[in-house]
Amino acid sequence: MAETFPQLLLEREREYGNKRIALREKEYGIWQAVTWTEYVRHMRHFCQGLVSLGLTSEDTVAIIGDNRPEWVYAELATQAAGAKSIGIYQDALVKEIVSIIIHAQVKFIVVEDQEQTDKILNMWERLDGVEKIIYYDPKGLRNYTENFLMFFPDVEKLGAEFEQANPGWVKKSVAAGKGSDIAILSTTSGTTDDPKLAMISHANLIAMGKNLMEVDPLQPDDEFVSFLPMAWIGEQMMSFACSLLCGFTLNFPERPETALSNIREIGPQSMFSPPRIWENLVNHVLVRIEDSSWLKRFLYDQAMKVGYRMADARFRKEKPNIVLQVLYFLADLVIFQMIKDHLGLSRLKRAYTGGAALGPDVFRFFHAQGVNLKQIYGQTETSGISVLHRDDDIKFQTVGTPLPETEIRVDERGEILIKSPAVFLGYYHNEQATRETLVDGWVHSGDAGYFDEDGHLIVIDRAKDVMTLHDGTKFSPQFIENKLKFSPYIKEAVVFGGDWPFVTAMLNIDMEITAKWAENHLIDYTTYTDLAQKSKVYELVRKQVKIANADLPKSARIRRFLLLHKELDADDAELTRTRKVRRNFVTQRYDDIISALYSQTDRVDVEAMITYQDGSTAMIRTRLRIETLDGRTTGISANELAA
Length: 643
Hints:
This protein has 3 domains: 5-269, ANL, N-terminal domain (Rossmann fold); 273-346 and 348-420 and 428-460, ANL, N-terminal domain (Rossmann fold); 467-642, 2-Layer Sandwich (GMP Synthetase, Chain A, domain 3). Helix 12 (294-315) packs across helix 14 (360-368). The protein has an 8-stranded mixed β-sheet with strand order 7-6-5-3-4-8-9-19, with helices on both faces. A 5-stranded mixed β-sheet has the order 12-13-14-15-16, with helices on both faces. Strands 17, 18, 20, 21 and 22 form a 5-stranded antiparallel β-sheet that branches. The longest helix is centred in the middle third of the chain and has 22 residues, at 294-315. By secondary structure, it is α/β, with parallel strands linked by helices. The chain contains 22 helices and 29 strands.
């Protein structure tokens, strides 16, 4: 029985050979197919090429780039040699990359293209222990003369030569692999601290994949589009564990920018995306509807009313009456099928969201259209997933019930604890953090939650982020933030409360959608900062905040907000690479703005340094307007502040 990823790959090759497509990549407008036999040949040659260059089972190989077949070959080749890989986000800053490479003791770095090569060359003097940079897109690199640079096919050629002298070497090496071997080092999200390197074994990932496929099986004929960063544990979960277990075809977009259009071409049966992707799809639909004719808007509104009734009936596990069934059939025929086809969701069996909480409004939106969207819950430390909605038991305010072989309990402090075969081995070269997180086989998640009467897990927020309002009410900032982000005009939100007398928010507008709205309303603007401070944009956003406030408890409603002068950005350490807000850092960085939200002023002057991806910086100076929800813009009284 296969214990490692390379062993699974050889199993699939024996089963399907050249009869089935394993990988497909769109290149120059044409989908290029790779069979399982070709897949194994690339893995085998690259593995032997690395070994001929000096790779040993104790070494680490870093991989940086967009999702391409070469990433998959490199990771599996590394593991076939008994070594481990680590994925690095392609948009990571120089200091992040240096820190990860040094900590992981990387020997070889596999990069995609000239951009990533240049980034590594700029930090080369700091990368002790790294021996080679191997690139797989040669465009722009013809005149590079560094002797430690190598072209991916040249390494494969070395591997082919190694094979002639050492026939059968890879098979022997793969057969010697154990499930307990470290497969990957995976960076944690880093919402509260610098990312740590989680050691995840083959057994961890395979157990997680098997348990997920037991609940939601996929078939060899199914399609999956791999477009999220492979450095993220969620993509490792689907593109490696589930793909190698089931044998379905893995598709790679031509470019990250074309991912959604490529998804439409493929029409996958399964899709896994973080909340931001689903929020973007909602925004895309809402903007298209707003720009359509009055008749289309009318039909859409009527269809959504029917869709929400049907979705709510399913959530309650009620059988819809014949009238609702007929109305829904018509709504689906006239509206929903068209929308799903446009988004590439028409063939979906199941869709997943994870990595952060998805707002209930977004969840209901997709279920109204018949998209089987399910919440999952997990962490890097649990190989990506521990809890999942079942097809016939979906409650959008929960994250579902535990996977097979998974135990979940909530301790006396309200923290969620997890135990399963997918639980990681510990943090690489960080014993103290391992002892704090992994106790007697239980992962201390750092999340607060509880079980409802049906055994569904409800995740409130990060335990450290749950706040107590002035009147003693407990509330989750993330819940309110998700309600705000259902608006197509709000891209990011950070909500404050806790020790303060009322709730406030710092918001980012969605530049693309708000700019289109501004153009339609003949509003001139120059930059993001200029557009965000327009009076009419504030009026627009105020309406969206009021909608979010409508069904919140009075004490949790947003009283004051402002539109930030810049987008929150991972390059400025305000977001993680998976776009989670680093709340503590943001609170410290914008302390003067938060103080102004709780003062009697209606404006605040800001002077901020921003950092670009190449490490360069720039200073921004501007004045931000503060809006009070009852319509007053001259601040609130001292009595209200003291209330």
